[in-house]
Amino acid sequence: MRRDQLEHAIRAACQIIGASEVIVVGSQSILGSYDESVLPRAATMSLEVDVLPIAPSNAETAELADLIEGVAGEWSPFEQQHGFSIDGVDLETAILPLGWRDRLVKVQNANTAGVSGTQYTGWCLDKEDLCVAKLCANREKDVNFVHALLGERLVDGRLIAERLTIVPDRYSVNARRAERWLAAALRGLDR
């Protein structure tokens, strides 16, 4: 995926739900921090953008996420036309460290403006918070994603380790497993 596709996804998701801003929580939120030209292939392979609507409750967030999914999700005419899909998600999708909302990366430019001139904003996860979410998910594609970013020195392993210690307590098993993987990965990269 490319940065311009992320910007298109932000604009489209906002238009679908009638909002001025959304949060990007999946792997493509890395494009808020880096252009695809500096990212390893493993960081841009996904052709779906995970979008978290901003709403007063998780129930409303889930409804808006379903709306996004219905219009622009996998197998939709949107995906067929643009070559990527938008996956609506809710607050339970990603395991994130405390304070993650304070570190969001703003994506707003001419490409996120609608034809009427309405300016839309995408808030992408901070790159280290994204790595925390990926490591806590513990899927092969997620750990490969983090390993690729660490290998290119695009994320700070010590900061990821620090943030793993402030994951909500109910996810402590995920965080401890992620800490062990990260420590081993960092040792391997130091060789």
What does this structure look like?
The chain has 191 residues and is an alpha/beta fold. The protein folds into two domains: 3-124, no CATH class; 127-190. 45% of the residues lie in helices and 11% in strands. Strands 3-2-1-5-4 form a five-stranded mixed sheet. The two termini are 31 Å apart. 41% of the residues are buried.
Number of helices, where a helix is a run of at least 4 consecutive DSSP H or I residues: 7
Count of the separate structural domains: 2
What structural class do you assign from the helix and strand content? alpha/beta
Helical content, roughly?
Answer: 40-55%
Describe the sheet with the most strands.
5 strands, mixed
Give the beta-strand count.
5
**What string gives the helices and strands in order?**
HEEHHEEEHHHH
N- to C-terminal distance: 31 Å
